[in-house]
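Re: your question from the hallway

Yes, I did run it. Sequences:
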Amino acid sequence: MNHDTIHYPVFSDQIISLLDLHPCHVVLDGTCGEGGHGKILLSFLNESGYYIGLDKDAAILRIAEKRFSTLKKRYSLVHSSYANSLAVLKSLGIDHVDRILLDLGLSMFHIQQENRGFSYQSDDILDMRFDQTSHSKSAFEIIHTASMEELTEILRVYGEEVYAKKIARLITLQRKTSLIKTCQDLSQLVLRVKPYTGHIHPATKTFQALRIAVNQELADLKKMLQEVPLLLKKGGKIGIISYHSLEDRIVKQFFIQTEGLNPVNKKIILPSAEEIKINPASRSAKFRLGERL
Ligand SMILES: C[S@@+](CC[C@H](N)C(=O)[O-])C[C@H]1O[C@@H](n2cnc3c(N)ncnc32)[C@H](O)[C@@H]1O
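Structure:
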């Protein structure tokens, strides 16, 4: 791992072969982050190849830019949601790409960086927006404006949280008397209704659910997937790394149902025991590859 960066890219040793990348390819990396995969992909591309990196988070893209600037390769970094990939490619004068990579969710950067509000252990204000320049609601705003039914639905659907109703009820009771302002405030509140049953912190699912709601993650993914047949050249491939069943279900259905797109690997690819040992955050990663016919 590079010491200036925090995130360890999943499948980093295999990403070139998993994507079946050729040095002259044009690649769209929809989730550039700190540029972990991006650096590997860019280093492999030759002077005919081109890399386009997108991220919703402008701060994280600045780190990638710093890493890429010394590589002397052809690339563009754009602060955008991957849900707007077609428009971004059009603005760059690119019609189609050979490969797409999506490495979904959040980066370790978001967990460890101060004032982002993603980590249940921190005293940060509950923000959780990937794009801090957007006017979309933060986790704090959702917690204080959503009805009990809406909160239950967010926790049940996006967190698959069996304690959804109890947690939502407690949130709505608590907010009448005092603000639930920080990550600690929320995780302490969850602990009052949900006990520890293993190593996983009881607030993990609540934080996942709110993060997905704040960033409209599943809506963005579905919009992007609809555009894939228009983004890829014939024979082009898309590799998607997902980290929980909600995302993976959407990706799996997309590969099965989309006309003109075939799943390449029928069996999902998982990280090796060795990779999980080096990078425990990779333990829930699943890789699927699809090809445009
Ligand atoms: C798992 S990290 C990617 C790490 C990256 N592959 C690397 O190797 O450094 C996911 C990234 O996707 C970004 N992201 C999440 N949703 C996004 C969206 N709809 N559009 C663009 N970027 C998004 C996050 O800000 C985060 O930086």
